[in-house]
Design brief:
12 strands; SH3 type barrels; about 270 residues; single chain; 7-stranded mixed β-sheet; binds biotinyl-5-AMP
Amino acid sequence: MKKIDIRDYLTANFIGRSIEYHETITSTNIRAKEIAREADEGTVVIAEEQTMGKGRLGRNWTSPKGKGLWFSIVLKPKVKVEEATKITLIGAAAVYKALKDMGIESYIKWPNDIVIDGKKVCGILTEMIFRDKGSYFVIIGIGINVNLDEEDFNEDLKNKATSLKLVRRSEVDRNKLFAYVLNNFEILYIPFKEKGDIREAIEISRERSILIGKEVRIIGGNREKTARVLDIDNEGQLIVKYRDGKTEALFSGEVSIRGMEGYMDNC
Ligand code: BT5
């Protein structure tokens, strides 16, 4: 199996300039948290395989060996901590742009999925580490199903997940894609890191949104409500309109959104 080597493609100045590589690991997010304090900003932890890959809310992330890109980036932005959750949208926009650079069209499902042919091909998990005096670090974990085959997905995932290899019907160069994600991430992240400017990532999330204009179910706690998605606002919030005519702005992480049937059947 070819190891990750992105020297030929990496143009970013600090994202991905230091990479910690593992054949196997529990979760790259867990490892990135361990090294965050000493690590330079932009340090990446990547693994061929995760034995305990994490999704949001304690869910699992399937991460078979040598077939995907499972990695986490250590970030040390200077913006207020409330702003930092928006980094997920920077990740989503960077993955979208990287796929486009590879000639692959995709959609963004707010707040943390990339979707092709109505199926999830990438998920993003942003976590914070709080330090004394209110300072913090951010770990953004990105999982991309690159060369997974049908049999890599369990019965549950077969209907809602896919890989780039499955949609392309040929293998995709992991090194190139990995570098393209890091390059695009840095371009979108720099204005945010310094000034909290996230306009470009939001613009992309809006333009490529698979949710805007659709009816969705919003699941929060034990409640489930049906609404129409109107927009993504300049703060990165999802603007929805309920059947009773009320509108609401949802923060990322507050709810899970599904297509009306299954994962994206209606979208
Ligand atoms: C996510 O959570 O989508 C965040 C996934 C983040 C994974 C990366 S990999 C590198 C880094 N290290 C980690 O440990 N994690 C990050 P969520 O929106 O909660 O979606 C989780 C759900 O997606 C699961 O409950 C499954 O239904 C589905 N799922 C699991 N593995 C998948 C896969 N490989 N492809 C598509 N869907 C998957």
